[in-house]
Specification:
Helix content: over 70%
Distance between the termini: 19 Å
Number of helices: 3
Mean pLDDT: 77
Strand content: under 5%
Shape: rod-shaped
Order of helices and strands: HHH
Structural class: mainly alpha
Radius of gyration: 32 Å
Number of strands: 0
Low-confidence stretches: none
């Protein structure tokens, strides 16, 4: 009878060891997924910041051209040079606006938050809780 008890204890210990190993692997996998999602989100944020930087430079160039157009309008009463500078400045400002909007859209936080990992962790917790409920909270 003592041998049977020892075999059952060894089986329980082996089972607990397997569960601990499985939980460890699960946590490591979830952490790798969270790291990958965060890296992807940071890359997207970096691209958005780059676009915002380019938009700022192009916007300054556009403002410079518009200022040049205003100076030219005051310096000369002719229509040709003023309107051409105005059109070029306006076009550059529209390009800057487009880049700024694209950069703003890229910086939305939904890409940085590890949503898939959190959903996976919730699902894992629900599965463990369901397993405990089905066994009536009994241990092996």
């Amino acid at each position: 009878m003592s041998e049977r008890r020892d075999e059952e204890d060894a089986g329980v210990m082996s089972l607990l060891s397997d569960v601990a190993t499985g939980v460890g692997r699960l946590v490591q996998g979830e952490l790798r997924l969270a790291r990958a999602e965060a890296t992807e989100g940071l890359r997207t944020a970096g691209a958005g910041l780059t676009k915002l930087g380019i938009a700022a430079v192009v916007g300054l160039v556009g403002l410079n051209v518009l200022a040049g157009a205003a100076v030219a309008a005051l310096a000369t009463a002719g229509l040709g040079p003023v309107w051409s500078a105005f059109v070029v400045g306006l076009a550059l400002c529209l390009v800057a606006l487009g880049l700024a909007l694209a950069g703003h859209a890229a910086l939305r936080l939904r890409g940085i938050w590890p949503g898939r990992t959190l959903r996976g962790l919730r699902r894992d917790a629900e599965t463990v809780q369901q397993g405990l409920t089905e066994t009536g909270g009994r241990h092996v």
